[in-house]
């Protein structure tokens, strides 16, 4: 299959931090990028995603998405879009599978807590943590000096996994893609002339993430009884669109966007009632919306190709951006900002802060063996705090609660 893309990716794109000998000649032949995908699929961090919050906690309902199911859906969207554009689908799919590996317990709520607590050791950001996992924390390969290089993925795949290719403080806002002590590998995987530009495979992953969670979070909210698309409170939704996503969106823009969404073939004319027919209609709506968004981007991006590395960019029409933003805002207003959700988030923040404090106080005795080793090798307090943050970020929602109860003697999230 890779022969289709031989002219698009060179030896530098396939290079790994640590050179690897050829595999057994009698083993099934796989390309370098297929091997990358397999390594992410089999990583311990991937398994943990099944017990990490997407929007609603994974333990709250069998239907709602967790970080793993979300990542699988993003991967499917990324692979299909990549293939349609003529890009290498294994790279975009692997980046999609990996894009949330660095998220801590309790979703973005947990990310905000760790960012505040890690201010003295370089901050915390889920995407920077993903790079750290892929290139350091996951156990697979060691270099000649005995240092872990994580999964030892190819340069092209690691670059595709870099959603925010800049350091903390290089741009306004909380998003960044690399901690200062991971700069050596970041420098290795990036070319100076690319600046802060995403490669096309990272752009595909980024769009697939936006498409998947804008549509699926609304779907989850509808099934949970929190969202009724036939009775939307337009005012608060518009405010969230401007506050969170598109500050320049006008009232006329938002009104036209909602009208366009309501014209989508599968948009419901009646409230969801939990029946099999109603669920089928909802599934058809999600399919229609994903096809609408990806089709619009594919048509707008059209040319010039080829869609590999830095030879092209995705073109996302303004209308598509607005429609995605409106769907995100609907989920925020009706699910993430509900009173019960806010109370739960407050307790989660307290729990994570207490957990970081007690682990930092107890040191290596409170850490899993790999992180205890990192603690003993740390040169200063900032490095030791980073180890604690790495440990806590690796936990699932359930294990964070269990660790907190065990280490503090206080139960309950």
Structure description:
- The longest helix has 26 residues, at 276-301.
- This protein has 413 residues and is an all-alpha fold.
- It is 57% helix and 0% strand.
- The protein has three domains: 2-194, Hypothetical protein af1432; 200-340, no CATH class; 347-408, no CATH class.
- It has helices at residues 11-14, 32-41, 44-48, 67-85, 89-98, 107-117, 126-137, 155-160, 183-189, 200-223, 234-245, 251-262, 276-301, 318-336, 339-362, 369-377, 381-394, 397-408.
Q: Please, how many helices? A: 18
Shape: globular
- SSE-based structural type: mainly alpha
What is Rg? Answer: 22 Å
CATH architecture type of the largest domain:
Orthogonal Bundle
Percent range for helical residues?
55-70%
Taking the sheet with the most strands, its summary is: none
Record field, number of beta strands: 0
- Uncertain spans, ≥5 residues at pLDDT below 50? none
Distance between the termini: 48 Å
